[in-house]
Specification:
Elements (H helix, E strand, L loop, with lengths): L1 E3 L2 E2 H18 L1 H8 L3 H23 L5 H24 L6 H23 L1 H5 L4
Antiparallel strand pairs: 1-2
């Protein structure tokens, strides 16, 4: 899915992941209290988002995107949906409604990206700059 000549769903995916990861790191203590989740869980979310965001952005900025790398990205997004669901289920008894809302929102957003990337994997793997 390409929106403009130089911007694709990969740019959105990587930018969102990196931004969320860095924001979670920057405000980890506050978010832990807001979400009513353990700090280690917030740091896990921050780490995963930051690492994933770096990979997705590196892929978005690459001149050569293999089909396998696009598949890995889409599958990673699908796995992250399951991880978010597991976190919500695991902490449903202590998490705040705000925390549940944001983690479910992340799962929906990432799930949407997974579908877009999977449906457009052949087009995305042929992008050239």
């Amino acid at each position: 899915m390409i929106w403009r000549k130089n911007i694709s769903v990969l740019h959105i995916d990587g930018s969102a992941g990196l931004a969320v990861g860095l924001a979670l790191f920057a405000f980890a203590g506050w978010i832990s209290e807001l979400y009513q989740l353990p700090l280690n869980t917030i740091l896990f979310l921050a780490s995963a988002n930051t690492i994933y965001g770096c990979y997705a952005l590196a892929l978005a900025l690459s001149n050569k995107k293999s089909l396998m790398s696009i598949k890995v990205l889409a599958i990673a997004n699908s796995v992250w949906v399951v991880v978010c669901a597991a976190i919500v289920i695991l902490y449903a008894h202590i998490a705040s409604p705000v925390g549940v809302f944001f983690i479910c929102g992340e799962a929906l957003f990432v799930g949407f990206l997974a579908v877009c990337e999977w449906k457009n994997r052949f087009l995305l793997s042929k992008e050239d700059r």
